[in-house]
Design goal:
The protein has eleven helices and 15 strands. Helices cover 38% and strands 26% of the residues. A seven-stranded mixed sheet has the order 4-6-5-3-7-8-9, sandwiched between helices. The protein folds into two domains: 7-165, YojJ-like (1, CATH 3.40.1700; 176-343, DNA integrity scanning protein, DisA, N-terminal domain (YojJ-like (1), CATH 3.40.1700.10. The protein is of the alpha+beta class. β8 and β9 form a beta hairpin. The longest helix is centred in the middle third of the chain and has 21 residues, at 193-213. It comes from Chryseobacterium artocarpi. This is DAC domain-containing protein.
């Protein structure tokens, strides 16, 4: 007789442990988490891929009180069943553009649900950072979301992030977003102290968008002191004037006008387009974009290498050989969401 293995039981066991550590024990909630995790994989509505973030909370008013310029919209409620949690996702997911997230509030007998957001610009700190990374035990909250193709992440204050893979890639030992954040750190390394946090937030959102779109991408970081691109990286579109994001952020902080904000919004789309283009996007470690659509010649030793990622992986290997010799850091994202970096 064949052996049956259920991913459902694995997720249920993890959900049970997570809720207990968070002080949110509940049989109904743990069953609901399993259902939501399965629904979130490649979630679509009307043919459109959606990446809703779901926050399970005990007190939405307390949550909103710690979020700057927060807004929320109550959508509905129902009996305390996993079916109500599923309905919350179905009814609210189409409303989650423009940084809106779903909340499911637990009461003794019901689930209430709706959408909420915080901040007013691309520079606003994300809800996830405020509630999870900088959160406290007082605010009971669990986050579920799909971070890339077939990859679901569950986060809470008292637990390490749990990454659940429904794909055929290697078992993830940590969220790929951690490698993203490490690479963004390299981009903002020499940004002025008073501008660093907002510049980091801006680029973090760009890289998150690239990850959600499931598009392969290559990038590297050079020193801001290098006014000329390294010779091995000259085959591409070298920007005559580097795109200086911290400079525009400083303009927005000083003037607080719509022009600078409009620039940031427009460049957000352009930078994503650059990173979705073939080749390598080159950043400096002072938060600038210097070039994109760049190609590098593969040395013979690398050109003959068999890699699972094909030409993109070979390009990453070629870039890695320059880390410490012209490059500060390198980055590769495959279409299945796997991310690798190398730093000086």
């Amino acid at each position: 007789m064949g052996k049956s293995i259920s991913l459902k039981q694995v997720i249920l066991d993890q959900a049970t442990s997570l809720l207990k550590a968070e002080g949110m024990d509940c049989l109904i909630t743990q069953d609901g988490i399993v259902s939501l995790v399965n629904q979130l994989v490649n979630y679509r509505e009307e043919g459109k891929n959606l990446f809703p973030k779901i926050y399970i909370v005990d007190d939405i008013d307390l949550v909103l009180s710690v979020l700057p310029t927060s807004q929320y919209c109550f959508i509905g409620e129902g009996n305390k069943t996993k079916e109500t949690m599923q309905r919350a996702l179905k009814k609210c997911a189409p409303l989650t553009d423009s940084d809106w997230s779903i909340y499911i509030q637990r009461t003794d007998t019901h689930f209430k649900y709706g959408v909420f957001r915080a901040g007013v610009s691309l520079l606003s700190v994300e809800i996830e950072d405020l509630l999870i990374k900088e959160g406290s035990d007082e605010i009971k909250v669990i986050l579920l979301h799909q971070i890339s193709d077939k990859l679901i992440e569950i986060k809470s204050v008292a637990n390490e992030p749990l990454v659940i893979s429904f794909g055929g890639s290697d078992e993830p030992h940590q969220s790929p977003t951690q490698n993203q954040l490490d690479f963004v750190d390299s981009i903002v390394k020499n940004v002025k102290k008073e501008l660093k946090e907002q510049t980091f937030t801006y680029y973090k959102k760009i890289f998150n968008e690239i990850l959600k779109k499931g598009h392969g991408s290559l990038a590297c970081v050079i020193s801001h002191k290098k006014k000329i691109i390294p010779k091995k990286l000259l085959d591409g579109i070298i920007l005559e004037a580097r795109i200086n994001i911290p400079e525009i952020i400083e303009e927005l902080r000083n003037k607080n006008d719509l022009t600078a904000n409009s620039k940031l919004n427009g460049l957000f789309t352009i930078i994503i387009g650059m990173m979705e283009s073939d080749g390598i996007t080159i950043f400096t470690n002072s938060g600038e974009i210097a070039a994109y659509n760049v190609f590098i010649k593969h040395p013979n030793s690398i050109a003959k290498t068999n890699t699972s990622g094909g030409a993109r992986s070979r390009t990453f290997l070629a870039l890695n050989s320059l880390v410490g010799n012209g490059l500060e850091a390198t980055y590769i994202q495959s279409q299945d969401g796997k991310i690798e970096i190398k730093k000086k």
